[in-house]
């Protein structure tokens, strides 16, 4: 039987580490637990929130209703052939631990996604991506529980409707399902993905013979830790805003006015570096009370200790406004804000 705790601090359960309280709290560790969860009167009759690693969330106040922490664990090999191995992963598994497991087994495909905080179940919600790789490239399916009907079903990669930091879980299925497990197809014959400039530069002295999944992962971990704050030390949720995608025409206009603009090719034209836009507006290293913008990466908003979610969101809105006024671009928050 699930244990319910009342009026518990959520500070240890999200990476911004703001001091907020959940009215009711529980943890579920299996598919059977999840079935029990959705039949609880507290779940059916009050508001509820399913929490994973808490790495992409900002609470602006205390949480009414029930918060349920997904702790479903386990990594199972479902099938394999000479090229690929299909692996089923419990949604509550720590994502970086999954990456390390794959490297240990010499399975490629997610090494570029090293050190992304959060749980495996949250990975498809965001379609996490880093250093030239997105989750959708290795994703096969997710096993989900529909909270209204209690039906358990598998949803394919195509049905997930993956986009840039986007999926069906942020739209049609938002607050309507619990991700129980995900299945990935990892390759036994890894192809190293080094097209991302910062990664290629960091590995340029490494010979082909010495290049490995572990070397790529270790290098990415070093890059990330050198420029991003450790959430266990300084509260943050990584990138707070998405990199905006704009037309080629809009890019040409901005590049004429700002020749140093940082941009990347995308299917729709160009993707601008949101961190560059924010830095150009003078926010890098800014601090007001305990809410601030990281001094090494302007894309990261931080809690230096006692900032509230409201203070952080107010700072984010000021940043959005300044970017809109200077560049005519509307930044979109990547972080899920819980009011």
Enumerate the strands of the largest sheet in spatial order, edge to edge or round the barrel: 6-7-12-10-11
Strand element count: 20
What's the rounded overall pLDDT mean?
A: 95
How many domains is the backbone divided into? 3
- The geometry reads as globular
Work out the strand percent: 25-35%
Structural account:
The protein is α+β, with helices and mostly antiparallel strands and 339 residues long. The chain has 3 domains: 66 residues, Uridine Diphospho-n-acetylenolpyruvylglucosamine Reductase, domain 2 (2-Layer Sandwich); 153 residues, Uridine Diphospho-n-acetylenolpyruvylglucosamine Reductase, domain 3, CATH 3.30.465.10; 104 residues, Uridine Diphospho-n-acetylenolpyruvylglucosamine Reductase, domain 1 (Alpha-Beta Complex). 26% of the residues lie in helices and 28% in strands. The chain contains 10 helices and 20 strands. Strands 6-7-12-10-11 form a 5-stranded antiparallel β-sheet. A 4-stranded mixed β-sheet has the order 1-2-5-3. The longest helix is centred in the last third of the chain and has 19 residues. The protein is globular and about 60 Å long. The two termini are 30 Å apart. 40% of the residues are buried.
